[in-house]
Every structure is written in C-alpha cells, then in structure tokens.
Amino acid sequence: EPEVTQTPSHQVTQMGQEVILRCVPISNHLYFYWYRQILGQKVEFLVSFYNNEISEKSEIFDDQFSVERPDGSNFTLKIRSTKLEDSAMYFCASSHPPTANYGYTFGSGTRLTVV
Amino acid sequence: AQSVTQPDIHITVSEGASLELRCNYSYGATPYLFWYVQSPGQGLQLLLKYFSGDTLVQGIKGFEAEFKRSQSSFNLRKPSVHWSDAAEYFCAVVLLSGGYQKVTFGTGTKLQVIP
Lengths: 115, 115
Prior knowledge:
The complex is a heterodimer of chains A (about 120) and B (about 120).
Chain A: E1 5-7, E2 10-13, E3 19-24, E4 31-37, E5 44-50, E6 53-57, E7 65-68, E8 75-79, E9 88-95, H1 99-102, E10 104-106, E11 110-114
Parallel strand pairs in A: 2-11
Antiparallel strand pairs in A: 1-3, 3-8, 4-5, 4-9, 5-6, 7-8, 9-10, 9-11
Chain B: E1 3-5, E2 10-14, E3 19-21, E4 24-26, E5 31-38, E6 45-50, E7 56-58, E8 64-68, E9 73-78, E10 87-95, E11 104-105, E12 109-114
Parallel strand pairs in B: 2-12
Antiparallel strand pairs in B: 1-4, 3-9, 5-6, 5-10, 7-8, 8-9, 10-11, 10-12
C-alpha cells in the first residue's frame, strides 16, 4: 500500500533556529496536511494545502510556520524561529477525494525536540 | 463542527481479557471513521477504517470496530488482549464530502495491560 514518507524521524534543534520538516505524500494525492501532537496530548490540525496554496490553517499555525511544495513530490513545513513549545511530533498526511476510494494517509511522524 | 469523544482516558485490562474502547462522534453527514494506535514515542498506526458497507469492520492485530449510526458510535473491540496491545488508541473522523478533508481526533485512551 502506498505510504507517506517523513524525514527525519527525529530532529533536535536549538531554540531560535529554523527547522524544515519534510514529507513525500502519496503520488496521486492532491491535498496535503500537517498535524501536530504535543507529548501526552491529542493530535491537532495545523494546516491544509491544495493547488499550491493554504486551504485552511488553525490558530496554532502562526507567522512562524510556513508550508511549501517546492517540487512535484515534496511537501515541507518550516518553523522559522523555534520555541520550546514547538517540541512535538509532527505528522504529514495526504488525501485524494473521494476519500472513500482513494484514502487519507498519515506519515509516521517527525519528533521535533527544541532545546 | 465535527467532534470526537473518547470518554475513557485510561483503561486497564488483564491479559487475555476482552477489550472495548468507546468512541462517539458528532456529525450530520456521512463520516469516515478511523482507529489509530500509538505506542510510546511512535507514530500513528492505522488499525481499521470505516466509510460504508458492513458496519462491523475488521482491522489488524485482531481488532474490530462496529459503526452504530443510531448511537453515533464507533467502538473498538478485541476479544483477547495481549501485553503488546498496551498503547494509546485514537478515534478519528473525517467528513466524506468536499475537497480537502480535515481529520478530527479524539483525546485518546491509554490502555494498560496487566499480567
């Protein structure tokens, strides 16, 4: 079954540094998403992306965050100046309507630790 | 707005005992329902999903879930729990219509298995 691939699996960064989390969605999917899970909490929606623009973003997704699809295969989440509270597991997902036929798939996540 | 409720934050069962994890959703439209499992420090693993058809869905690792529209529930069950099933379980829902589709997660149920 096709997979969403995320790299790296674990990243440690110093507070104030920029990080880029990378994702390779399923090739025929059209919609791309980032979710976040702070340790011990539930998975929360960050942003959705379609046709090279943001479709929806949550209040978590402030000016420190940006997303990009730099080429035909990658989908990235950038955090410009990391804060301690950005430490979390970040999940990428992709989908293709109708979801019932083509599915909605999550990657295995990138654990970001800000020190 | 869509929402998912997992009433049990923490459940403890004996190895070999049966298990039922509760999930209720709030939705007016046809939902697409998932159960995910997450081991400590790991990503989300899809256990099973439902979007139509037979209301009893079989998943991996011996899990099954039953969709009950009248009760707005999608409870996860396993007849005999193994120690390796200790993990956190998340119910999730996405609306089956439109283009992009945001997934809403429940708060999770932590399962502890005792010998």
